[in-house]
Amino acid sequence: MLFRSAATVAFGLLGLVASPVLAQDEILTGCICDGYEMGITYDNGTVETHPVLKTRSSNGVGWCIKDGVLLPEFQKQIRDGVTGRLDNQWVNGPWAIRFYGGINNPNPNLNTIARTVINTITSLVELRLPSCDGIYPVDSNFEPTGCDPQCSWKCSAGFEQCGDRACIDPATQACPSGVPVSKLRRSEPSCPAGATVCPTGTGGWECLNVASNLEACGGCPGSDASVDCSALPGVADVACRSAKCVASRCVRGFTLKAGVCVPSSKRFW
């Protein structure tokens, strides 16, 4: 008989010593060098522990989030590793499947497992982010690039660096003397403060508050950053807060951990 319970599941971070934790009201953007591991203690006393996600020393970058959302390229590495059952420099797919999907489950839902792993590493990154005040650009048109050197960044696709702490849209802005300056341009759709102009898919647009929209949390519908919080596995009560899905209650079979519903301990015979 094999089993795992809350008392016998080992959960640990791999990598560097934790950086100072950010205050909850700070923008959750940055990278950590750590990965994490999961372990199971069986009833015969045998302990099996493996990394689920690898550290910077393995993948060369670490794990990065922007405004509380794991960057799309990292999400893709996790999805590819889990759905492809790969054990590579990024993720141990077979161990993630075994841990989250069930030891004796012949048909685990690989997409659900990948989403659970993404949610878990996102929460861990948030808890261990260093402060990058005065280093990151003052606008939001950038992405963190890694944990070593810490607080490194680059301008997002389509934007260009202007001075030490700005990324500009060259179609609408100029950069004389390293200072962003608006260009004259035709009128474009605009939204009230706090809302984002989102395409509707029919040539039109709408204003959405992607920081609190339950079905378009973190970005416009259809974008890589957008998450439908109501569709996340195991959630019973969930909200979009500061562009991040935060669960407050889970359905049976799931346990609430740091605002994420993860599969509860299971017993196997």
Keywords:
signal, CPL1-like, disordered N terminus, Protein CPL1-like domain-containing protein, PriA/CPL1_fungi, alpha+beta, 269 residues, 30% strand
How does this model look, in words?
There is one protein chain. By secondary structure, the protein is α+β, with helices and mostly antiparallel strands. The chain is 16% helix and 30% strand. The chain is built from four helices and 20 strands. The strands form nine sheets. The chain has a three-stranded antiparallel beta sheet, with helices on one face. A hairpin with a 5-residue loop joins strand 8 and strand 9 (152-155). The model is unreliable at 1-11 and 15-25 (pLDDT under 50). Residues 1-23 form the signal peptide. This is Protein CPL1-like domain-containing protein.
The SSE order reads EEEEEHEEHHHEEEEEEEEEEEEE
Q: Give, in spatial order, the strands making up the sheet with the most strands.
A: 2-4-5
Q: Note the main sheet.
A: 3 strands, antiparallel
Overall, the morphology is globular
How far the N terminus sits from the C terminus, by CA atoms, comes to 5 Å
Number of helices: 4
Strand content range: 25-35%
Give the oligomeric state.
single chain
Keywords: Signal
Organism: Vanrija albida
Pfam families: CPL1-like
Protein name: Protein CPL1-like domain-containing protein
Quickly describe the structure:
With 269 residues, this protein is α+β, with helices and mostly antiparallel strands. The protein contains 4 helices and 20 strands.
Q: What is the topology?
A:
Blueprint: E1 2-3, E2 9-14, E3 30-32, E4 35-41, E5 47-53, H1 56-59, E6 63-66, E7 69-70, H2 72-83, H3 93-101, H4 110-128, E8 142-146, E9 152-155, E10 160-161, E11 167-168, E12 173-174, E13 181-182, E14 196-199, E15 205-208, E16 235-241, E17 244-250, E18 254-257, E19 260-263, E20 267-268
